[in-house]
Amino acid sequence: MLTTSKQLFEKAQKGHYAVGAFNTSDLEITRAIIAAAVKLNAPAIIQISEKAIAYAGLENLADIVKNEAKHAKVPIVLHLDHGRNLKLVHECLEEGFTSVMFDGSNLTLPENEILTAKAVEMAHRKKIFCEGELGTIGNSKNESDFTDPSLVKDYLKKTKVDSLAVSIGSRHATKIKALNIDLLKKIRKLTNTPLVLHGASGVPDEEVRKAVAAGICKVNIDTDIRHTFSETIHGINKKYADLSDPRDIMAKVMADIQAVVEEKIKLFGSDGKG
Ligand code: 13P
Ligand code: ZN
After folding, report:
1. Nearest CA owner, ligand 1 atom 1
2. Rounded Cα–Cα distance for residues 254 and 260 (Å)
């Protein structure tokens, strides 16, 4: 069923596990994520980025997730990932998203705080949670900027975000060796606000486990899903030369993505928590 993230985060924090947040851009990825969540009786956040919206259309993609979630026996959250402007946050809230993120990490701190506070106000009017970002989670091209713990309390007070994306060494679509777990522990001591790990595809499993144990309660995975999709497609001719019906090809893609999502759910400890 489609739900908000409030109870999901409360349960995750009490149970010391994290909820997986998986990016989708189409029907097949959405179905694979939900199939994995249902099989393992796990809650799941399905998130949509601006690039996914540009690809599939906001209404189309939101409808796919909402329809698929309606029939699922586990809690599913429909979340806007890295929304960079208030107009988009507004559109997603109107479209029935049950969670949003405002990412002002490319702005100055005062601008980040002012616009994030506005996004939070918009979300709260609809009783929806809003995630913010302090510090910058870069990618292989852009440097990341670690979250400064001395700014955390003030940022949370000014913005009233319900969850906080922290920059502790992970980077989008980039393999890293280790997270700064000491920094995470320092931030955790300052607040009970649910903390979010972005860029988790490139983080070694052992580091993800440590981060969850140190208080991360939402973990974002995108690249691993997209790579699995393309690798399966590229390998189709070699492995299944007889397949020509796109629906049969997509069945293989979905099975492979489902397997990846199942592994992540187990890694985050959210299996059996649906
Ligand atoms: P990866 O693509 O590195 O898994 O990061 C996902 C993410 O942070 C989405 O917001
Ligand atoms: Zn991210």
Report:
1. 199
2. 10
The answer to whether the CB of 171 is under 6 A from ligand 1 is no
DSSP helix, strand, coil percent of the chain (3-state; round to 5): 50, 20, 30
Using CB atoms within 10 A of its CB, is residue 13 exposed (0-12), middle (13-18) or buried (19+)?
middle
Residue 68 domain boundaries: 6-268
pLDDT digits 0-9 by tens, 107-139? 999 999 999 999 999 999 999 999 999 999 988
Q: Which atom of ligand 1 is nearest to the CA of 226?
A: 2
Q: Full-prediction pTM beyond 0.90?
A: yes
Q: How many CB atoms lie within 10 A of CB 185?
A: 16
**Does the Cβ of 144 fall within 6 Å of ligand 1?**
no
Residue of minimum CA distance from atom 3 in ligand 1 = 199
The one-letter amino acid code at 118 reads: K
Task: Please report whether residue 1 resides in a domain.
Answer: no
In sequence order, the 6+-apart residues with CB closer than 8 A to the CB of 80 are 47, 48, 88, 89, 92, 97, 99, 100, 101
Catalytic annotation, residues: 81
Q: CA neighbours within 13 Å on the CB side: how many for 69?
A: 25
Q: β-strands 76-83, 163-166: how paired?
A: unpaired
| H-helix or E-strand spanning residue 159 | helix 149-159
Residue 106's CATH number = 3.20.20.70
Number of domains observed in the structure of the chain: 1
Q: Strand (E) positions, 68-166? A: 76-83, 99-102, 129-134, 163-166
Ligand showing the shortest atom-to-Cα distance for residue 139: 1
Which portions of the chain are predicted below pLDDT 70? none
